[in-house]
Amino acid sequence: MGFSCWMFLFSVIATSNGILFPKDSPSRLVKDLNGVWHFRVDDSTSRNASFEEKWYSKPLAASGQVIKMPVPASFNDITSNSSIRDFVGWAWYERNFWVPSTWLDGKTRVVLRFESAHYHTIVWVNGVQVMEH
Question: Is 50 within 8 Å of 92 (Cβ atoms)?
Answer without folding.
Answer: yes
